[in-house]
Amino acid sequence: MIPMHSIARIRSDFPTKFGIPRQSGLVGELKATIVFEPEYRNPDALRGLEEFSHIWLIWQFSEAVRDKWSPTVRPPRLGGNTRMGVFATRSPFRPNAIGLSCVKLESIQKDPKLGTVLVVSGADLMDGTPILDIKPYLPYADSHPEATGGFTGNVGGKVLEVEFPPELLSQVPEDKREALIGVLSRDPRPSYQHNPDRVYGMAFGGVEVGFSVDGETLTVRSVKHASPAETRM
User: Fold this and answer.
1) Which CATH number do you get for residue 104?
2) What span, in angstroms and rounded, lies between the C-alpha atoms of 6 and 17?
3) Based on the structure, what is the number of domains in the chain?
4) Which of 56, 115, 178, 228 is the most exposed place for a label (fewest CB within 10 A)?
5) Counting beta carbons within 10 angstroms of the beta carbon of residue 62, is it exposed (0 to 12), middle (13 to 18) or buried (19 or more)?
6) Residue 170 lies inside a defined structural domain of this protein
7) Last residue of a domain, which of 108, 142, 176?
8) Same domain, residue pair 17 and 129
9) Tens digits of per-residue pLDDT, 147-171?
10) Using CA atoms, how far apart are residues 55 and 100, in angstroms rounded to an integer?
11) What are the tens digits of pLDDT across the range 3-25?
């Protein structure tokens, strides 16, 4: 066995998996906070990190830990029926349930109760996700503009038009509105579901949002405040 410790946990606006962007960096308006575990709250461990604009988060798919693994998985992007090798995907169902995300480091702050915390943007992590390690992003080594995307094609650039009635938008905390619209524009539905009559529900930032999608337009149908049991923030 290889020993591994959770060094921190993330605080985000996603109490459940549904609606989380499929990759990091797709919705830059999303803000999250990385809170270190008490034994890792030594500020010296972050010395020099403020010089970097982006960081890598290595984390655990804590909701997908399994005793067994399969050599193939069914990526939602391919309709949920075609099988691909697990190592050709970013599926959470892996031999080791480890995720990798590149996020923008917005600031390093000192909290009177939590010690030094990191404020990041563009994270694709559920609230409470354990962080295993943090590394600086190095542009000269980590950026490869010529890279190809395999079966994912050019899906990263697709966005929906979001129709958000003002009377419903007003029920969303003002500091969460731009991020929520960004998340909705990336189509939170499973890639293989296209029923224009179905209303989906997504929890985000203390509210429950109901929406439907018809073609390239997402329409928000309802907004209600989530109960304390529905949010972990």
Assistant:
1) 2.40.30.70
2) 20
3) 2
4) 228
5) middle
6) yes
7) 142
8) yes
9) 988 887 655 567 999 999 999 999 9
10) 10
11) 889 999 999 999 999 999 989 99
